Amino acid sequence: MTLSAPSSHTRTTVVLAVAGAMMCGAGIATQARINGELSQQIDDGVLTALISFGSGLVIVSVVMLFAPSGRRGLGLVRSALVARRIPWWYVAGGCAGAFLVLSQGLVAAVLGVALFSVAIVAGQTLSGLLIDRSGLGSMAPKPVTVTRVVGSLLALAAVVFAASGHLQGDVPIWMLALPFAAGFGIGWQQAVNGQVRQVAHSPITATFTNFVVGTAVLLLATLIHSTWAGWPDSLPSNPLLYLGGLVGVIFIAGATIVVPITGVLLLGLGTIAGQLLASLVLDIVLPVAGHPLSAITVIGTLLTLVAVGIAAIPSSRR
User: ∠ CA(284), CA(287), CA(293), 5° rounding?
Assistant: First the structure.
């Protein structure tokens, strides 16, 4: 199978970038499992999101102290903003990440993980198609070809099929709109973080700005939420439950590196495939009570891998 790539990137580079996108997806699945367990134990999804983002900010801040390139990157981004060479919303990608984790806490339990995931994938796929079609900053527009559309539709169908045994009906439209908007925001977040990385010449800088903005948004949301919900009596002592931020730092930094190579759509599809694969492995190694592994889930995951391959096939038909 031949992978399509911009002329400036070799075939091997694109293959490695898609593999990196799948690893980012694996990180998202791992983080979701960690944060889901923490949220259950403290019974507060909003505070869980703040802990995850806040710990990620602490980690990337420490990295910045020992990374001169990251600090230089901050200066370059600031100069670009002051000179209006880039719009201010390039550095607001963390808002989309904050909205994603907030939507998890607000509606995921009601919708169920399956329906929530379908809405996320639908929004993420549409976002990837639109951003790739129009381009963003240094990312040149990519044509909406037959193979890219077929791959996108197959990915959505594969996720629906994998989740079909767990879908719930009779849910309000607004509950579906939240994760759909969050999925759309993921594509936008990956694109703008990639632009910050290009300006700063450092993925650390892009990751740092993402976590600063996301943490600020979630801190405000937590303060508002706690005025009527209160604070938990205690926090779990298991240190593994606080690794969500570290995992987030890794996959957000990885996405900023590979998105200029893959484009938003292929990055999103690779991320979805990696997320399903990692979820499959986690369900086998660390099964969750009441959620047995089914053949439908396995088949849906394999179909997603096929979808990524189809979307990467070069095509001149638009």
Answer: 60
18 within a domain of the structure (yes/no): yes
pTM of the model: 0.80
Burial of 43 (0-12, 13-18, 19+ CB in 10 A): exposed
Amino acid letter, 26: A
206 and 77 Cβ atoms separated by less than 8 Å: no
Domain for residue 8, yes or no? Answer: no
* pLDDT tens-digit series, residues 238-258: 999 999 899 989 988 888 888
Number of Cβ within 10 Å of residue 19's Cβ equals: 13
Burial of 153 (0-12, 13-18, 19+ CB in 10 A): middle
| pLDDT beneath 70, residues of the chain | 1-9, 105, 108-115, 137-138, 162-171, 288-294, 312, 314-318
DSSP characters over 143-160: ---HHHHHHHHHHHHHHH
Domain interval for residue 181: 13-231+239-312
In a 3-state reduction of DSSP, which class is residue 177? helix
Q: Is residue 154 part of a domain?
A: yes
Residue 75 pLDDT: 94
Q: What is the CA radius of gyration of the chain?
A: 19
Q: Among 30, 3, 87, which residue's Cα sits nearest to residue 263?
A: 3
Instruction: State the total domains in the chain.
Output: 1
Helices 45-65 and 93-103, packing angle to 10 deg: 150
